[in-house]
Every structure is written in C-alpha cells, then in structure tokens.
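Structure tokens please, single chain.
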Amino acid sequence: MIKLAFYGKGGIGKSTTVSNLAVALAESGLKVMQVGCDPKADSTINLRHGEDVPTVLDLVRERKDDFVLADMVREGYAGVVCVEAGGPTPGLGCAGRGIITALEKLAQKGAYETYQPDVVLYDVLGDVVCGGFSMPMRSGYADKVFILTSGENMSIHAAANIAMALENFKGRGYATLGGLILNRREVKNEDAKVEELADDLHTEIIGRLPRSETVQNAEELQKTVLEAFPDSEMAANYRALARAVLAASGGGATC
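Here you go.
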C-alpha cells in the first residue's frame, strides 16, 4: 500500500488535482482511497457528482463512537473510496484535531484492512503545517509528500514552509518530499520561479499542469476531468502526472 499526501496553499487546486489523480490511478486497475483533510470537506465532491460524504467529525459529534466504518466511507467514481475528515463548528474547536480524529477512526474501524487500497491519497490544507495538519506526514501514514504550487508568491511561500516542516521532521521518521507539482496560473516567469524553488529544496518538479478551461467545465458538471472529458488533453496531463507520482513514490510507472 502506497500512502501519499498532497499539500499546498489553499485554492491552489489540490482537491481537483488529487481527485483526477485518484481516477487516473483507478483506471489503471489500482484500488484507491482518497481522504479529504480539509475542514471544507469538499475534497471528494467531484468524485461523487456533488453529493457530500458524511464527515468523520460530524459522526463523532452526533454519535460519539456509535457508528461503523460504512457510515464514514462512500464510493465515488471509478470505485474510489471517499472519506472526509470535516471540521469543527465554526468558531469552536481545532480543525487540525479533525484530521487526527479522522485518521485515528479510519485505523480503529479497520478501513485499510476492509478496503485494502493499493494507494491512499491524503488531500491536506497546506497553509499551516502544525498539529493535526502534520498528521498525514507522520510515520505510519504517508510515505511521500507532494507539494502543489504555482508561480504566485504566496503559493511559493506556502510550499517552502511545507518543505521546511518536512526537513524539520526528518529525524522522526516522517514522510519525505516526493517533489513539486506546478499547477500553472500563468503568472510572469512562473516556470523559472518554481524551478528555482525546486533547486532550493533539492527536489524536482515531477509534473506541470497547464491552466485549462476543461477543468472548470468539468467542475461545472460536478465531475472530474477524466470522467467528463476522458479524451481531452487535460485528462492526458493528469494521467501522465499519475505515472510520475507513482514513479516518484517507488511504485513504478504502472498506470
């Protein structure tokens, strides 16, 4: 089982990218689980055609521990197993605690043994890397972390902070950096800026995604690009990125 975490500044396109990667991996015959680790609980929404997944935190609030694995898991397009951590009541509680609770409940309820995923994808809000937000990096969870960034200054700043956290955690046996994913916003000198960041972090840009109306068109249909427009150039880009992610994770380019 390969476990991968995807971090990056809020709004950089993590959920869109991760959902399309999930489908690309599933198309190749792999069993995929996607875990949304964002209080908005919308990571898997396009895998479910707009239908929400009950969040783990909502279940805990409403039922304590009186629920079963099937209550917190739903199947999405291409058989992707969908889980959403959720968040606290606005103004109350800690969003990071929701991630910790969700991952603990997945383990306690036997999710990995029951669904036996080949690949687990954690979609994590990456503006902060403290407390629960670092949970997917910890030993026993993700093996590799991939950071999504554009050439925008705030996105690069967030990416650098995430990489710094990984560097500080390396003595604890946490996940290691698998590389950067450039999700273009068409800003000036974008490729050069992200290439400089990769050099500074001693890593590689494993994928470059163009800005594309195809993504917005698919989201209006509440679908992934690979479902809505499977023969599009953008779908091919996501499939190529899936191969690169697997290769960078030591899983081989098998999809």
